[in-house]
Amino acid sequence: MKTPNGQTASWPAPAAPDMRRSVVAPDLVVEGEMTSAGPVDVQGTVVGGVEAPEVVVAEAGRIEGSVTAHDLAVLGRISGSVSARQVRLGPSAVVQAHVLHERIAIEAGAELDGRLQRKA
Predict the structure, then answer these.
(1) Residue 104's beta-bridge partner residues?
(2) Other CB atoms closer than 10 Å to residue 33's CB: what's the count?
């Protein structure tokens, strides 16, 4: 399946059990691309892209750019594009993005402004 920009979508493999979590602290702003072989918690702001097996965007977290993950949980904000095998939008999530997914769960209270596309 092709994404809107013509690229073939693929997701990172799940993180190995011994991988440590990387944390973007609440007072941290990262500009650029982030890639990790382990889980990433975004409590601060990322302006750019995040690619990791598991990404959690905390309530105060914000990503302005792209997210590529195997599993994505959002409680904060994302504006840009999302490509994740499994997506969960929590009750405080605000997502303005094109979302390419295999499975998605949207909890009551979550805000989604964009397009959902299921990858078969």
Answers:
(1) 87
(2) 12
Closest CA to 53 of 15, 82, 16, 104: 15
Residue 17 DSSP label: T
Dist CA 97 CA 18 (whole Å)? 32
Instruction: Choose among 111, 15, 27: nearest CA to 72.
Output: 15
Threshold 0.85, pTM exceeds: yes
| Residue type (1 letter), 33 | E
Does 2 score more than 60 pLDDT? no
Reported confidence tier of residue 9, pLDDT bands at 50, 70, 90? low
Neighbours of 9 (CB within 10 A): 16
- Give me the sign of the Cα torsion angle 113, 107, 31, 28: positive
Task: Give 77's contacts (C-beta < 8 A, 6+ positions apart).
Answer: 57, 61, 62, 63, 93, 94, 95
